Amino acid sequence: MARRAVPRSEAVKLTRYKHACHAMFHAPNEDKLFGRIPVRHTVLMQMRFDGRLGFPGGFVNLEEGLEAGLNRELEEEMGLDVRLCGITEGDWAVTEVHDEQNFVSHFYIKKVTPEQIRQIETAATTAKDHGLESLGLVRVPVYTLPRDKVGGLPAFLSNTFIGTAREELLMGLEQEGILSHSEIHKALKASGATRH
């Protein structure tokens, strides 16, 4: 499926296309799994109504504005208090045009505090769409278990993701310095998945 990255400013001119916005929230995490394996970072995704993993968000109208539409979706799906940690244009990461489908996807990345992550996770259980569109938030294991070299991120990457969510996750992990290119490559290889 052909897709091309374009600047946000060019994409908003594509008024005959459907537009969807999604966001990755993340925060540093100093916890250790079993008291010895560094968790490193908390990265949130969601289990969708269709059983696939994706990022919170959805379709937006260009008239309402990309970020305003995304914040509306985040309020509905996650109960997000957008006054405290809403998405702004400064959180924009990448936009891709899928010409064959007349579809444009916008991806945002927002770093928050560990306390804000806990607030987001708590609020999500009372969101309007909890248990409907969103079956709940999921923490991405950004570590690889040393014993088998498959547990953690490699096993997580073998799940089924919606659209380009897996690629957006990997791009976000690398862009935000959560994992190196080499660490991502090793996790992908161990998972049996490939990077597009």
UniProtKB/TrEMBL annotation:
It is found in: Nucleus, Nucleolus; Nucleus, Nucleoplasm. Residues 16-162 form the Nudix hydrolase domain. Its main location: nucleus. The keyword Ribonucleoprotein does not apply. Its EC number is 3.6.1.64. One of its GO terms (molecular function) is snoRNA binding. InterPro entries: NUDIX_hydrolase-like_dom_sf, NUDIX_hydrolase_CS, NUDIX_hydrolase_dom, NudT16. GO terms for cellular component: nucleolus; nucleoplasm; nucleus. Keywords: Hydrolase, Nucleotide metabolism, Nucleus, RNA-binding. Its cofactor is Co(2+). It catalyses: dIDP + H2O = dIMP + phosphate + H(+); a 5'-end (N(7)-methyl 5'-triphosphoguanosine)-ribonucleoside in mRNA + H2O = N(7)-methyl-GDP + a 5'-end phospho-ribonucleoside in mRNA + 2 H(+); IDP + H2O = IMP + phosphate + H(+). SUPFAM superfamilies: Nudix (SSF55811). It holds the Pfam family Nudt16-like. The keyword Secreted does not apply. GO terms for biological process: mRNA catabolic process; nucleotide metabolic process; sno(s)RNA catabolic process. It comes from the Eukaryota. Belongs to the Nudix hydrolase family. NUDT16 subfamily. This is U8 snoRNA-decapping enzyme. It comes from Branchiostoma floridae (Florida lancelet). The lineage of its organism: Eukaryota, Metazoa, Chordata, Cephalochordata, Leptocardii. The gene is LOC118416522.
